[in-house]
Amino acid sequence: MGVAAANRVSLGEGATPLVPAGRIAARLGLDLHLKLECLNPTGSFKDRGMAVAVSRALDAGARTVVCASTGNTAASAAAYAARAGLKAVVITPAGATADAKRAQSRAVGARVVEIRGSFDDALRLCRELGERDGFTVVNSVNPDRIDGQKTVVAEIVEQLGAVPDVIALPYGGGGNTSAVAAGIAEAGIPTRIVSGQSAVRTTTVASAIRIGEPAHVERVERLVGEGRVEVATLGEDELLEMWRALGSDEGIFCEPASAAGVAALAQLGIAGVTAVAIVTGHGLKDTGAVADPATPTVEPTIEAVLEAIR
């Protein structure tokens, strides 16, 4: 990691499960596995990169870490800053972040500021703060984040016991696509990347990828031009259908954005290969996405229960 041992910050990130997705795999005609990055300490894939970014910030003498976020980066930055004894400032678009993610950030002491603007406005303000003494930006524009997140590739290969043909994941800001590409290059393997983005980036129900101007768009476009990445643009119905399938067919409760990788595989008709889809965020991050039909209240008899579940 290149930092003093005393400044290495960890919450036990990484070593997340890799599980087969048999029912969805059968439907799509491929060998599909799910990398459950949603089971990292703060419930998202961000923790791998944040452990490195905050450790290096602490080692360099930073007093405050700052990030723009639609939620997961905020929760991760706040937790790792607290672990390191640093302050955390989160700038987020008003009304664009799931309640649970704001609660996570505040619960561990972050100063959360909502702005009347977009994620892109929030990131601009973070960059300006980052130019001031004592502040370190820990968005994925910080290369330390990429260094941490790329480790997922080596872990996938080790757990799978083979090199996957495809790794699929959501495409919001493009940082994780860049990180996975870096991990693939470092491992020297021919794995392709499939990234799923929303067709309505700024208004999508998948709040974790609600980003109008991806910070890593130039890098992703270069990877597309090199034939290393294929991007699928998904409709809201496609995203939500696969999100529900992950729950009802595989028992994986994730936030809607996490289904984008599998939905991209389905849209592109990728079949006959071994694919790993990265499930990026836990469902408890965005419970507002779950429909809440009226739960029946019945008499305490077996007849009443049977009637209610018919």
For the structure shown, list the relevant keywords.
4-stranded parallel sheet; alpha/beta; Rossmann fold; single chain; 2 domains; 6-stranded mixed sheet; 310 residues
Task: List the total number of helices.
Answer: 12
What strand line-up does the widest sheet have? 1-2-10-7-8-9
Counting helices, strands and paired strands, the structural category is alpha/beta
Could you spell the SSE succession in H and E letters? EHEHEHEHEHEHHEHEHEHHEH
Shape: globular
Beta-strand share of residues: 15-25%
The tally of structural domains comes to 2
- In the CATH scheme, what's the topology name of the largest domain? Rossmann fold
Rounded average pLDDT: 95
Largest sheet: 6 strands, mixed
For the record, give the distance between the C-alpha atoms at the N and C termini, rounded to a whole number: 56 Å
CATH classification, class level of the largest domain: Alpha Beta
Based on CA atoms alone, the radius of gyration comes out at: 20 Å
The percent range for helix content is: 40-55%
